[in-house]
Design brief:
The chain is of the alpha/beta class and 211 residues long. It contains nine helices and five strands. It has two domains: 33 residues, no CATH class; 172 residues, 3-Layer(aba) Sandwich (Beta-carbonic Anhydrase, Chain A), CATH 3.40.1050. The longest helix has 22 residues. The structure holds cobalt (II) ion. Cobalt (II) ion (CO) binds next to helix 5.
Amino acid sequence: MSRLLDECFAANRQWAAAAVAKDPGYFKRLEAIQRPELLWIGCSDSRLPPNEIIGRASGELFVHRNVANVVEHTDVNCLSVLQYAVDVLQVKHVIVCGHYGCGGVRAAMQAQRLGLIDNWLRHIRDVHLWNREELSAIEDPDARANRLAELNVEAQVANVCHTTIVQDAWQRGQSLTVHAWIYALGDGLIRDLGMVISSPDQIPPEYRLFA
Ligand code: CO
């Protein structure tokens, strides 16, 4: 095996031993049950380890990641994570967290062929088109990409709220709030974009599944 992978196994043994030294029942307890209150939907970017940046231990964060944190209403992978988190684990909050300097967002702004992923990034091209006026007024290309990253998070929060999963939960009176956050690689801090949705009155009537 490569040296890098050997290092991974060595680090894993050290980590597991340290956890048991600190708390002998640690893995036994975690093995028995997981009861996270948070679902994190974030970018796959290697610089955003979700548990680490918000100080959550194992068992405290249910996670779905993909390129540029897209929530697409026919993506059975993302929807399955959301459904399990909401219906079975009964998480209280869904956090969509994007980040400034997102390569996926930047790629979606360029006339450039990257491969299969261009089909995925089409969702972000749509967000760009919907906000064309605001974005074209921003001259600096990095600032424009960062604003699109924010708008993309907001669009994906809306997509979470429009799912049958979230609307069914609200309909049965389950408490569930969806949040739009963005992380800055440059300082390690998360900004709350202030979009906090916890009831169907906050979504457009065209998307409401219950009268
Ligand atoms: Co990214």
